């Protein structure tokens, strides 16, 4: 009758013991597991997360440092400079840039000697009621080359053209050592009075063309027939 009860106690006890044993075993396993993890993952001191469990396929666990430190901000790609469209419009100062920043009509592009003398002559002419205008002072090589080409087409040959326009290598305008002036009254005045300032008309065929050919106050040298007269 009651002898079926006693076996139940031991059964309960066994069950309890089994449970306790199981708990102890599980606890031991967990401790062992933790120790194994610590042994295997020496660098992860302080990080008790079982990272091994997250790597079931033998993959290397994620570096712990990346979890401890905030990841560096992803560098934003630098915006690429979009190249500005190539200006197709030709600069209005292109002619000036060819002569070092001076336009052809600007006496500041001339040599200091001719510029200084010319300023004095211009002032003296103004005092006489004559206005001297600069039509061409310093020219770029490119401009001189264009002028020569145009002269060749107009006069029919290189030789005929160089009576009026010299090639860039021989042109005093390219060196800033010659000036063309106008109008006619200014040419006449400077041809008559230029020697006082060391400025002389050089060619018979170019009444507008002047250079600093003499010492101020001294007589000008004899004129040449044309520019091609001394050229080869
Ligand atoms: Zn000239």
Automatic annotation (TrEMBL):
<feature type="domain" description="D-alanyl-D-alanine carboxypeptidase-like core">
    <location>
        <begin position="110"/>
        <end position="210"/>
    </location>
</feature>
<feature type="compositionally biased region" description="Pro residues">
    <location>
        <begin position="70"/>
        <end position="86"/>
    </location>
</feature>
<dbReference type="InterPro" id="IPR009045">
    <property type="entry name" value="Zn_M74/Hedgehog-like"/>
</dbReference>
<dbReference type="InterPro" id="IPR052179">
    <property type="entry name" value="DD-CPase-like"/>
</dbReference>
<dbReference type="Pfam" id="PF02557">
    <property type="entry name" value="VanY"/>
</dbReference>
<feature type="transmembrane region" description="Helical">
    <location>
        <begin position="12"/>
        <end position="32"/>
    </location>
</feature>
<keyword id="KW-0472">Membrane</keyword>
<protein>
    <recommendedName>
        <fullName>D-alanyl-D-alanine carboxypeptidase-like core domain-containing protein</fullName>
    </recommendedName>
</protein>
<keyword id="KW-0812">Transmembrane</keyword>
<feature type="region of interest" description="Disordered">
    <location>
        <begin position="50"/>
        <end position="108"/>
    </location>
</feature>
<dbReference type="InterPro" id="IPR003709">
    <property type="entry name" value="VanY-like_core_dom"/>
</dbReference>
<keyword id="KW-1133">Transmembrane helix</keyword>
């Amino acid at each position: 009758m009651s002898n079926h009860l006693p076996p139940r106690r031991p059964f309960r006890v066994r069950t309890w013991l089994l449970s306790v044993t199981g708990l102890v075993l599980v606890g031991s396993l967990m401790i062992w597991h933790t120790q194994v993890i610590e042994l295997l993952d020496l660098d992860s001191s302080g990080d008790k997360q079982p990272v091994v469990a997250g790597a079931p396929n033998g993959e290397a666990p994620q570096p712990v440092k990346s979890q401890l430190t905030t990841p560096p901000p992803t560098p934003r790609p630098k915006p690429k400079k979009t190249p500005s469209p190539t200006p197709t419009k030709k600069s209005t100062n292109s002619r000036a840039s060819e002569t070092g920043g001076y336009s052809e009509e600007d006496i500041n592009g001339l040599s200091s000697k001719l510029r200084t003398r010319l300023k004095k002559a211009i002032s003296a002419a103004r005092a006489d009621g004559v206005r001297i205008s600069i039509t061409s002072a310093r020219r770029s090589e490119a401009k001189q080359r264009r002028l020569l080409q145009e002269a060749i087409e107009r006069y029919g040959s290189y030789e005929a053209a160089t009576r009026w326009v010299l090639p860039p290598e021989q042109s005093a305008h390219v060196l800033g050592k010659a000036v063309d002036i106008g109008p006619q009254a200014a040419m006449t005045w400077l041809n008559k009075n230029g020697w006082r300032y060391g400025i002389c008309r050089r060619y018979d065929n170019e009444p507008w063309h002047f250079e600093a050919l003499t010492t101020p106050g001294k007589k000008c040298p004899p004129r040449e027939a044309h520019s091609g007269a001394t050229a080869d």
